[in-house]
Structure formats: structure tokens, C-alpha cells
Amino acid sequence: MLACKKCMFLTDQDKCPLCGGDLSKEWQGMLVILDWETSKVAEHMGIRANGKYALKVR
Q1: Which of 3, 9, 13, 50 is the most buried (most CB within 10 A)?
Q2: CATH architecture for residues 2-57
Q3: pLDDT value of residue 44
Q4: Dmax over Cα atoms in the chain, in whole Å?
Q5: Sign (positive/negative) of CA torsion 29, 57, 35, 47?
Q6: Which of 47, 23, 18 is nearest to 35 (CA)?
Q7: For the chain, which residues make up each domain, given as ranges?
């Protein structure tokens, strides 16, 4: 999996499907958001879509 350098979304595609940002192989930690509208963690991180996210991206 690759992580977006902008929004930290994890994907196996060539470009980020959420924001179109560049991807990195170097990331740490994984967060899965199931309901971003009620998640306090998603609110804190600025996440506006369900899915898998990296906690740290280089």
C-alpha cells in the first residue's frame, strides 16, 4: 500500500483517489475510519471520507 503525502489516505493506485496527491512508500501506523461524520479522531485529523489512513507519511 502507498500513502498520500497530502491527505494520508492509503491506496494501491498510482494517484490518490481522494485528492490526486503524490504517494509515498514510506509511512507508519494505520487508522481505519468507518464513520467519519461521527468520529472524533477523523474530526481532529481533518478526515472527510471513510477508509484507511496512515498516521505518519514521509
Answers
A1: 3
A2: Single Sheet (2.20)
A3: 95
A4: 30
A5: positive
A6: 47
A7: 2-57
